[in-house]
Structures are given as structure tokens and as C-alpha cells.
Amino acid sequence: MKIIRAKDYKDMSRKAANIISAQVIMKPNCVLGLATGGTPVGAYAQLVEWYNKGDIDFSEVTTVNLDEYRGLPKEHPESYWSFMHKNLFDHVNIRPEAIHLPDGTNPDAADACAKYNEIIHSVGGIDLQLLGLGPNGHIGFNEPGEAFELETHCVDLTTATIEANKRFFDGNEDLVPKQAYTMGIKTIMQARKVLVVANGLAKAKAVKAVVSGPVTPECPGSILQMHPDCILVADEEALSLL
């Protein structure tokens, strides 16, 4: 795993956006695996800024997102579909038909997951997968204890994850979806390149476990030590335990 040190969140976001834009420039019709959450927002903002300057073109890019809440309509302000449109898609020239997320409105979990696996295979797999890191080392919604060989599947969100996400639902955890459809570790590991972003002291333990801990399902991100082309871009606080 290659580690790129950043001074702070802004520097981390810029360095991560650089890696994503290099991928798009080198292969304009690439498939980008994208992530939601607080950490990638700065990188998306940087990509939008470069797009507005004419430095990056998304017209041939295809995207597949890591996950989506089960049971939330797309238009719900806290769906990951809405998050991606608000932070990136609405501001660049990506084709609507080239945007893919798991279908959270499909009540048949097996069908929703099988269809999403089929989409990922049909676009030729993922060239660059962007990942954030949960405080417990989770990637996507793959929580500790998940099997490494899973593709897209339905997960029950842990109490900690529901607690962390309730701030987006007026602080009311009854409104937070209790399940999600997520790409599995197997899907993530099949991406040709993986880019992990992490910032802040709250992520320092997870970064240490992912980079130098034992490879174990108890820390899902630790499997990335086995990936042939994985880059971690993290700020000084997140790297403080290494």
C-alpha cells in the first residue's frame, strides 16, 4: 500500500482529486467507483472546480457507487443518489445513464444485489475505486466480521453506524434506514486501483489497523494490504499512530 501524506483535509482532498483526474485523463472512458460520506466531499468539490476550468471531462466516464440505503427513495435528501448529485453529478458533464447505484427501492434484496453485480460486470469492472474509512475500519457498509468473498449484498447497519448517521436524519435514529445494499469486499478488491481517503484523529486507529494490523474480517479495510495497487491519502492526524 502506497501512503501519500497530506498536511490537512484540504491538501488530502486536492491530492485525492489529482489521482482521480489523472485516471480520467489517461482513460477518458474509465469506470470510477465512488463513495459517499464526509471524507470525499472535498475531493468532489476540487473535481468540480477543475471541471469548471476545463481541466477535466466526464463525458465518457461511467460511475458505480459503493452503496445505497435500502428503502429510501432516490429523491430522499439523504439517499446516496441525492448525495452524489448534490456533491458531484449535478455540476459536471457526466451522462445520467452512466451513473449507477444499487437500487435501494427494490424490496427484493437478492434481486437488487444480483442486478448490481451484473451492472458492474457489464461495464467491464472498476478502474479506480474511491473509499472512505469507518472508525472501525469498515469500507462501504462492510462491517467487522463480514466475509471477504462477498459481492454486492444486503447488510444490517450496526448500532454505531446508525448512531453516526442519525445526524443526517434530524438526530432521530428511528428515521435512519436499518439496512443497506453494499458492494462487497470481493468487488472492491477486483477494482484495478483503490484510493482510500482518511482525515482526522478519529480515523487514526482505523488507519493503523488497515495499514499495519493483521489482515482480518474484524477490520474489513485490512484486506487492502493484499491489493496490488492501493493508495492511501491521509492527513497528519489520521497518520499520527503510524
UniProtKB/TrEMBL annotation:
InterPro entries in the record: Glc/Gal-6P_isomerase, Glucosamine6P_isomerase, Glucosamine6P_isomerase_CS, NagB/RpiA_transferase-like
Upper taxonomic lineage: Bacteria, Bacillati, Bacillota, Clostridia, Eubacteriales
Active-site residues from the entry: 67 (proton acceptor), 136 (for ring-opening step), 138 (proton acceptor), 143 (for ring-opening step)
The protein's name in its UniProt record: Glucosamine-6-phosphate deaminase
UniProt-listed Pfam families: Glucosamine_iso (PF01182)
Pathway noted in the entry: Amino-sugar metabolism; N-acetylneuraminate degradation; D-fructose 6-phosphate from N-acetylneuraminate: step 5/5
PROSITE patterns from the UniProt entry: GLC_GALNAC_ISOMERASE
Catalytic activity: alpha-D-glucosamine 6-phosphate + H2O = beta-D-fructose 6-phosphate + NH4(+)
A GO CC annotation given for this chain: cytoplasm
